[in-house]
């Protein structure tokens, strides 16, 4: 319910109502079925209650171990099962990773994400990834890793080293999942997310659209994410990057408005989470980016490469930010998960006016 519709409702009460973990598939599908303008208005209104609508968080991504992955994810250029011509690289040296982290910091990133093409980390790899986490934190950057499945013990070790976020995606709905990946189950993924939470780290989890799934599968993915015991703090929405040699190389284009709807529905269902406009930006024009930010996306991967595929040039992202009056989010305020951002905005107020200022705090 919006504050405008019920001015007597306190902000705190309305925010508690917004954060739900009991979404039915029908409810999610009903959001998707709204007229486009109604959906975007609802998403933008809720966005302003939790975030500065003119700030976007910027993360940099580095592949610390590339290719030769034993898993069979049908979208992935790094699976050893598909001939994608990718050059395999073993785990990078810690100092080389930190060099890249320094460069990311000086180019304005607030978070440094490291990805490895593993099913799960081997025990012998742990000392190296732990040294990377410690080094990145010493630079004053937030750290994020995506290394595949984790045991509780591995999650605890990473948390003890100071890892802020762990990325592990559900990828799609439980129903479509088996058409895309056969080497690990949906339940395996949920267990890893549980271990990450159990270790006290922040969760980054989202999925991919444009893999030939039905509309109901996109709703199913968001339903799974929002019905987790706690919402992921970060929700990457990836548009499939079609890579020659993978089984999904010839997948048809997804209607761009379906992609924008997915961002908007994610924003409404997980109001206090950062929704990341993730893979696939290279094929999106400026208008599409602007629409995604309007629908509630407030995080991007920044830099010319994702893990193995191209991403827009940093300059073009910054030029678009300037044209849209967007600034990069400078620092993450330490706050309990699902606590609304104290700099709090709503649709009824002038753009860019913090509620705290309006209320005289
Ligand atoms: N190997 C680890 C794992 O799968 O958990 C971590 C790295 S993996 C590349 C991280 C995520 O990137 C995947 O879960 C998937 O959502 C996304 N991804 C990989 N290839 C992609 C592609 N071609 N298009 C869009 N997203 C992709
Ligand atoms: C996520 O959801 N998207 C990022 C990140 N998590 C690690 C990865 C996208 C990878 C796109 C394909 C590639 O560059 O290899
Ligand atoms: Fe391996 Fe991750 Fe790619 Fe799947 S998505 S093949 S687990 S690197």
Key descriptive features of the protein:
ten-stranded parallel β-sheet; globular; disordered N terminus; binds S-adenosylmethionine; binds 6-(5-methyl-2-OXO-imidazolidin-4-yl)-hexanoic acid; binds iron/sulfur cluster
Describe the structure.
The protein is an alpha/beta fold. It has 13 helices and ten strands. Strands 1, 2, 3, 4, 5, 6, 7, 8, 9 and 10 form a ten-stranded parallel sheet that branches. Strand 8, helix 11 and strand 9 form a beta-alpha-beta unit. Helix 6 crosses helix 8 and helix 10 runs parallel beside helix 11. The longest helix has 15 residues. The chain is globular, with a radius of gyration of 20 Å. It starts with 10 loop residues before the first helix and ends with a helix. It binds S-adenosylmethionine, 6-(5-methyl-2-OXO-imidazolidin-4-yl)-hexanoic acid and iron/sulfur cluster. The site of iron/sulfur cluster has 9 residues, from loops.
SSE layout and pairing:
Layout: H1 11-18, H2 25-32, H3 36-50, E1 55-65, H4 94-106, E2 111-116, H5 126-138, E3 142-146, H6 152-161, E4 165-167, H7 174-180, H8 186-198, E5 202-204, E6 207-209, H9 215-226, E7 234-239, H10 256-269, E8 274-277, H11 286-295, E9 299-302, H12 314-324, E10 327-328, H13 355-358
Parallel strand pairs: 1-2, 1-9, 1-10, 2-3, 3-4, 4-5, 6-7, 7-8, 8-9
Helix pairs in contact: 2-9, 3-10, 4-5, 5-6, 6-8, 9-10, 10-11
The chain binds S-adenosylmethionine (SAM), 6-(5-methyl-2-OXO-imidazolidin-4-yl)-hexanoic acid (DTB) and iron/sulfur cluster.
């Amino acid at each position: 319910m919006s504050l405008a519709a019920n001015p007597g409702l306190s902000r705190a009460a309305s925010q508690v109502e917004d954060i739900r973990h009991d979404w039915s598939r029908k409810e999610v599908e009903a959001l998707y079925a709204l007229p486009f303008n109604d959906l975007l208005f609802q998403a933008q209104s809720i966005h302003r209650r939790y975030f500065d609508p003119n700030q976007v968080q910027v993360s940099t991504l580095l592949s610390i171990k590339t290719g030769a992955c034993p898993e069979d994810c049908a979208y992935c250029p790094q699976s050893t099962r598909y001939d994608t011509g990718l050059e395999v690289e073993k785990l990078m040296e810690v100092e080389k990773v930190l060099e890249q982290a320094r460069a990311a910091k000086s180019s304005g990133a607030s978070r440094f994400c490291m990805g490895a093409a593993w099913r799960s980390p081997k025990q012998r790899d742990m000392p190296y990834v732990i040294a990377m986490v410690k080094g990145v934190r010493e630079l004053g950057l937030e750290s994020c890793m995506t290394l595949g499945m984790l045991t509780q013990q591995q999650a605890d070790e990473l948390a003890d080293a100071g890892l802020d976020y762990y990325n592990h995606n559900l990828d799609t709905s439980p129903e479509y999942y088996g058409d895309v990946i056969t080497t690990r189950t949906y339940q395996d993924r949920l267990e890893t997310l549980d271990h990450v939470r159990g270790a006290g780290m922040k969760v980054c989890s989202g999925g991919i659209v444009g893999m030939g799934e039905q509309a109901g599968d996109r709703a199913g993915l968001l339903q799974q994410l929002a019905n987790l015991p706690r919402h992921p703090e970060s929700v990457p929405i990836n548009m499939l990057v079609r890579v020659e040699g993978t089984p999904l190389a010839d997948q048809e284009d997804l209607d761009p408005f379906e992609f924008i709807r997915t961002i908007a529905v994610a924003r409404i269902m997980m109001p206090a989470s950062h929704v990341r406009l993730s893979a696939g930006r290279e094929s999106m024009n400026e208008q599409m980016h602007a629409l995604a930010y309007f629908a509630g996306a407030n995080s991007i991967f920044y830099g010319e490469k994702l893990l193995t595929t191209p991403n827009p040039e940093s300059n073009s992202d910054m030029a678009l930010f300037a044209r849209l009056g967007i600034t990069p989010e400078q620092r993450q305020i330490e706050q309990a998960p699902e606590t609304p951002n104290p700099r709090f905005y709503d649709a009824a107020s002038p753009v860019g006016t913090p509620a705290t200022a309006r209320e005289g705090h």
